[in-house]
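Q: What does the predicted 3D structure of VOC family protein look like?
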Amino acid sequence: MFKAIHHIAIICSDYQVSKDFYVNKLGLEIIREVYRDNRNSYKLDLAIGSTYVIELFSFPNAPVRPSYPEAQGLRHLAFAVDDIEQVVENLKERSIEVESIRVDPNTNKKFTFFSDPDGLPLEIYEK
């Protein structure tokens, strides 16, 4: 069912400080940096070697929180899958609520979210 971790998304409280930490202190490579004008937010895609690892986000006035979207800290954990529809059905058969499947406007890939028992957002991302 799950093939691998696709990426880890982190919303930071200070974008420049976090960018410096991940890039200059930890040595992650910048794949792409995008400023999303409509959200007043940056998205920085980082890798270790050739492996895509982290999406670093900034959002103005992001609240501190343990698990819901658009706040400081871990945003979600994403699992790469071959067939998203099959995986969604499998999760639903196990009484796990799953959001509707969406398509990423930048990659045209299908994705959706569900939560762990503590409310941590988990993503399924079709390879």
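A (community wiki): The structure tokens above were generated from the sequence. The mean pLDDT is 87. The beta strands are 4-12, 29-36, 41-48, 51-58, 73-81, 102-103, 110-115, 121-126.
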